[in-house]
Amino acid sequence: MTGADDALVVNNCAAALLLSLAALAKGKQVLVSRGELIEIGGEFRIPDIMAASGAKLVEVGTTNRTRIGDYRAAAGEATRLGAILKVHPSNYRLVGFTAAPSAKELAGLSHRVGVAFLFDVGSGLLDRERGLPDDEPTVHEALEHADLVTFSGDKLLGGPQAGCIVGEADLIATLRRHPIARAVRVDKLQIAALEATLMRYAVGAHGTIPVHRMLHESPDAIAKRAQKVAEAIGGDLEGAHVVGTTASVGGGSMPGVALPSSAVRMTVPDAEAFAARLRTGTPSVFCRIDDGHVLLDCRTVADDEIHDLVRAVQYALEGDDVDED
For 255-269, what is each residue's pLDDT tens digit? Predict the structure, then answer.
């Protein structure tokens, strides 16, 4: 599916990077741009993962501007170079006076100095599709230059939590033989869930994967769904109506990217208390509050979830009646 020679799956993307560095660069120096020393979930940071792997971090360039010449100089000064690592910042954006070498440039340098080029793309976007930002690298694009590419099985891929490593067969074989591979292997449930997700892509049915549907559904379809929700709860709440809004993709996948959407806006006596009842109810519903109104964004609601959503709102409204009494 990716065009890679081989693949290995571990339990998350941090583990994928840990295993790659431990197997290929333990005790050796790894070049990383200062602008890519990110902190991922759970307060784990790239330098911490690198230290745990036994690799030695060599910071290159500056936070906002790093050039291929910076990497070239660092490679020339390294006494025992193990790899060059590029990390896509999938949980923040650096804008303004910025510069970074391309993956093609880094691949050329790594091959000239005889080390592997690793590219952690993070979110796992397989192919570029309409409406997605150009600066989000796809796995296919990364594999055009990198020897190994790591990415998450969830996030933009839409499957279970997992760490996918794809690339050259001899490097994957080295990783598979490493003791850490056993410690971070996936279980049978993760394998089954990932296989089911990838099968959707393989047969062209990836539009049925929830995150894919949420990313690519048309604004008109969302508006129609929002209207159904508003009409269903309208009898219980005067003033529930559809408004245009924007839905954020999320900082762990596409930070700063917002998509046009539609929401049901409701006016309730106490928006904060109402939102809390929605969150703690069954089924649990997450909303947002805007200018004292409760908004239910319908981009993340599937058609078969409308009944459950309406029921949750009705339960929360009954709580309002109790509070007023």
Answer: 778 899 999 999 888
